[in-house]
Amino acid sequence: MSGRIRGWLDERLALGDVIEALRHKTVPHHRYSIWYYFGGMTLFLFGIQVGTGALLLLYYRPSAAEAYESVQFIVTRVPFGWLVRSIHAWSANLMVASAVAHLFSVLFLHAYRRPRELTWLSGVLLLLLTLAFGFTGYLLPWNEVSFFATRVGTDIAAAVPLIGRGIVRFLRGGDDVTGATLTRLFGFHVAVLPAVASGLVALHLLLVQRHGMSVPPSVARRAAEDRGAIRAMPFIPHFLLRDLFAWTIVLAALAALSTFYPWELGTKADPFAPAPAGIRPEWYFLWAFETLKHVPPAIAGINGELIAVAVMAAGALAALLLPFLAGHTAQTRRVVVWAGGAALAFMAIMTGLALAAVAP
Amino acid sequence: MPARGHGRKWPISGLSACRRRGAARLGVQKFPHRPKNSSTFLSTDCVSLLLHPVDPRNSAPGRRSVVNWLLGLWGGGVCGAVLYPVARYLAPPEVPEAATQSVMAGSAQSLAPNSGRVVAFGSRPAIVIRTAAGDLRAFSATCTHLDCTVQYRPDLQRIWCACHNGQYDLNGRNVAGPPPRPLEAFDVNVKDDQIALSRKS
Fold first, then answer.
1. Whether ipTM exceeds 0.95
2. Phi then psi for B15, rounded to 5 degrees?
3. pLDDT at A328
4. Residue A305 and residue B165: Cβ atoms within 8 Å?
5. Which end of chain B is more exposed for a tag (fewer CB within 10 A), N or C?
6. Angle CA(B33)–CA(B39)–CA(B40) in degrees, nearest 5?
7. pTM score, whole prediction
């Protein structure tokens, strides 16, 4: 019976080649192999976000009058609603962490090199999309902290000359953060971003399958010096089982975090209340938040925010174009390691300062 | 059979191939089991032919460029007709709102010295403070840095923004932290214990 079904499917889908290729696919096995698991982990967390997001949509109402109350309803009245919402919030955080770890591991192991430029490009775009998911989703519960975070986050765009005000109005759906902003960010969060992300994830995965896992130059060099082949393990079942094992650990961590540290809802947003003392964004935006605190109003007569925004945009652009700028020679690879290390150190120091800061 | 088995560039112009389409159709019917790589353009529309590369030696450049130009115009028009309304739709319309000139801001007596209160001034927040000396002052409560709402800090005797630690003195001047401009000041009047805020004339 199963043979007949397989035959029927094979005649229509011609999957034989794909299955055959997967059967022979191998994954290099060396001292840095552990970093191969973070991409899969990010994908797993993305799947969880799609699932829990769809569940939240069943009860959530995207309006300034009802959003907070509907989330309150989800976490207090809907059976397991607290768990679903908590998993969605925690999984979002773990997904950012996992995607950042994935990006920096690819950077430090130089996996962005030819012919994987497009894999890198789609990956960086996916990380930016993940941050956009985080930013747009943050406002949806319509609580005090998210209200001011959105006011600050969208107002940063105002620093851009000429079109800044227009971008702010586009993001907010008006001059202020109101119910119009909520419906807009909701639309981005549940329709526009998922559509773009799904396409990019498909492209990213296709490219990963096409090129296979990259072997770090140092591992390849050592193997060449020893005249030995690089060890590899079959994708099916060896690597796949390890992947599943990693996903199980992530799921267990997620369940533990969501159960023992359920995500707080806070108090409802009040446009006429002052920003609460100690307000700060999610941990992954803390470095930018702390940087903005230290940027003076004007540097050499130019708006300080504009310079900060320009530097951050240049950094993002350099990250996007990395494989076209460096990686061909050992020398440029060393520059990449130093630049990546410096960026990581800067973000770590700024995050540390933000965490240590106490109100004056 | 025209243009059969010749790589990317058609040996004849798209238009002349078009003219021969009738014959080509017959050919297709005659030879239903054509090899995989044979050209498939024969049964397609002439328009798509024009989009294919043409060997410049054999094309009719005058007519082709005119048709290509027209096609480009048409394509551009379609894109514009779609993108313009979408772009306009994305930019929120200006909602006309009567500019608020003055608001009542509650009881003057209940505002103790060295404290402040945030009230609505139209759609935006305003802050009324009573200084330690007893004066009433009012400013826009929107921080000039990144749009947060400020509050009064009795311990500092300053207006303070919790978001990025910006500080303003009791005249609304930006004196510490990142704010680039002072807060807009409002006129304060008290009638029958009710505080009235109004824009500076």
1. no
2. -70, -40
3. 86
4. no
5. C
6. 75
7. 0.83
> Are residues B111 and B83 part of one domain?
no
Phi then psi for residue A242, to 5 deg, are -65, -40
Are the C-beta atoms of B160 and B153 separated by less than 8 Å?
yes
Q: Which of A26, A64, A94 has the alpha carbon at shortest distance from A263?
A: A94
The answer, yes or no, to whether residue B7 has pLDDT greater than 80, is no
* Residue B95, domain member (yes or no): no
Facing B164 at nearest CB: one of A170, A174, A292: A292
Distance from the A160 Cα atom to the nearest Cα atom in chain B, whole angstroms: 13
CA A222 to chain centre: 33
Structure tokens at A227: 């005249």
Pick A293's closest partner by Cβ from B90, B92, B178.
B178
Q: Shortest CB distance from A155 goes to which of B91, B146, B177?
A: B146
Distance from CA of B168 to the nearest CA of A (A): 14
Choose the closest CB to B162 out of A155, A180, A279. A279
Evaluate if residue A69 carries a pLDDT over 50. Answer: yes
Looking at residue B110, its amino acid is: S
Asked whether residue A59 is assigned to any structural domain, the reply reads yes
pLDDT of residue A34: 93
User: Is A282 inside any structural domain?
Assistant: no
Tell me how far apart the alpha carbons of residues A61 and A166 are, in angstroms, rounded to a whole number.
27
Residue A121 · residue A320 · CB < 8 Å: yes
How would you class A155 by CB atoms within 10 Å of its CB: exposed for 0-12, middle for 13-18, buried for 19 or more? buried
Q: Where are the alpha helices (DSSP H) in chain B?
A: 14-19, 21-30, 46-51, 61-90
Query: How much is the mean pLDDT over chain A?
Result: 93
State the total domains in chain A: 1
Q: B136 near B126, Cβ under 8 Å?
A: no
**Which of chain A's residues have a Cβ under 8 Å away from the Cβ of B150?**
274-275
Which pLDDT score is estimated for B58?
55
Q: How many domains would you assign to chain B?
A: 2
Per-residue pLDDT at B14 exceeds 80: no
Can you tell me the distance from the alpha carbon of B157 to that of B20, in angstroms, rounded to the nearest whole number?
90
| Residue spans of beta strands (DSSP E) within A251-303 | 298-299, 302-303
Handedness of CA A90, A96, A99, A103 (dihedral sign): negative
Closest among A128, A129, A140 to A193, alpha carbons compared: A129
Do residues B94 and A146 make contact, with C-beta atoms less than 8 angstroms apart?
Answer: no
A273/B120 Cβ within 8 A: no
Cβ-Cβ contacts under 8 Å for A287 (sequence gap 6 or more): A346, A347, A348, A350, A351, A354
* Min Cα separation B2/chain A (Å): 33
- A258/A250 Cα distance (integer angstroms): 12
B-chain residues within 8 Å CB-CB of A278?
162
Whether B145 maps to a domain, the answer reads yes
